[in-house]
UniProtKB/TrEMBL annotation:
It comes from Lacinutrix venerupis. Belongs to the cysteine synthase/cystathionine beta-synthase family. InterPro entries: Cys_Synth/Cystath_Beta-Synth, P-phosphate_BS, TrpB-like_PALP, TrpB-like_PALP_sf. GO terms for molecular function: transferase activity, transferring alkyl or aryl (other than methyl) groups. This is Cystathionine beta-synthase. Signal peptide: none annotated.
Length: 326
């Protein structure tokens, strides 16, 4: 018989799926690394399990412990699934701009969810960075995950996502395009791919309101770049240790409107019901058109599933209210 011993064994080995209509004007082959096939419906299952196993191995996470993390939802889902299988409790701190579905989903898998305001400085005691840290200090037998600076995040992608993409494309990949939040995905996959072939170009997708693109181009952390934005999962107002700028060739920024519109288009044109950062990623890839030639094989990674956005990007009343559609 062929079966997984528990749900965690089904993480990884996701398919590579060709994009057809939305990329019809591009000269190259465009393939999507389709991460919603993971059991928590996102790429984050990979790094969540890696972070837990590394913390178990060196004693940071002890039997019966409580896992504490600031998470926009997907990392929380991955951590919660692993916590259920392995017998830990979870407390997740989430910012109030995240979709209600994401909060409900985390509660559905047994986590306690604490909601914090988005529009405060990271140093503010109410911010979700500060509240996660404080809970980590106050809760007995707890472990604060810190996906932003935890090297196991990048390691998961270096050890699984990167090698899968290399193998699935038979080493023919020429460009990798992906949204950047904590940086774990781009840094782990980027490092692995460049070690196989240093000519592979690694492109990050950023949002307006985030510091990454300007920092990469100038080395300046410009606070004037920081303002509230709608796109979920990518862009930051901090520089996470998991963003390895050395393996990134460039960033392109996608507007909130374009990210939302292209999230709908992926569903309607390709039958790909995906999250908001997938819309940003495919639009960003189209913006990079002049970088691609006929024989190129471009891989874009899609992080999460559309079900988490039914109240927003898949709700036409919300889309009209935001001025994104007529
Ligand atoms: C929906 C979504 N897209 C993109 C990202 C960015 O991925 P990474 O944190 O690996 O840079 C995340 C993670 O924060 C996410 O949840």
């Amino acid at each position: 018989m062929q079966y997984a011993k528990n749900i965690l064994e089904t993480i990884g080995n996701t398919p590579l799926v060709k994009i057809n209509k939305l990329t019809a004007d591009l000269p190259c082959l465009v393939l999507s690394k389709y991460e919603t096939f993971n059991p928590g419906n996102s790429v984050k299952d990979r790094m969540a399990l890696q972070m837990i196993e590394d913390a178990e191995a060196d004693g940071r996470l002890k039997p019966g412990g409580t896992i504490i993390e600031g998470t926009s939802g997907n990392t929380g889902m991955g951590l919660a699934l692993a916590a259920i299988v392995k017998g830990y409790k979870c407390i997740f701190v989430i910012s109030d701009k995240q979709s209600k579905e994401k909060m409900d989903i985390l509660r559905a898998v047994g986590a306690e969810v604490v909601v914090c305001p988005t529009d405060v400085e990271p140093e503010d005691p109410r911010s979700y960075y500060s509240v996660s840290k404080r809970l980590g200090e106050e809760t007995p037998n707890s472990w604060y995950v810190n996906q932003y600076d935890n090297p196991s995040n990048t390691k998961a992608h270096y050890q699984s996502t990167g090698p899968e993409i290399w193998k699935q494309t038979e080493g023919k990949i020429t460009h990798f395009v992906v949204g950047v939040g904590t940086g774990g995905t781009i840094s782990g996959v980027g490092k692995y791919l460049k070690e196989q072939n240093p000519d592979i170009k690694i492109w990050g997708i950023d949002t307006y309101g985030s510091v990454f693109k300007k920092y990469h181009e100038t080395g300046i952390f410009d606070e004037k770049e920081i303002y509230p934005y709608v796109t979920e999962g990518i862009g930051e107002d901090i520089l996470p240790e998991n963003v390895n700028f050395d393996v990134i060739d460039g960033f392109t920024k996608v507007t909130d409107k374009d990210a939302a519109v292209y999230t709908q288009l992926l569903a309607k044109e390709e039958g790909m019901f995906l999250g908001n950062s997938a819309g940003a990623a495919i639009k960003g890839l189209l913006q990079l058109k002049e970088h691609f030639t006929k024989d190129d094989v471009v891989v874009v990674l899609f992080h999460d599933h559309g079900s988490r956005y039914v109240g927003k990007m898949f709700n036409d009343d919300w889309m009209r209210k935001m001025g994104y559609i007529e």
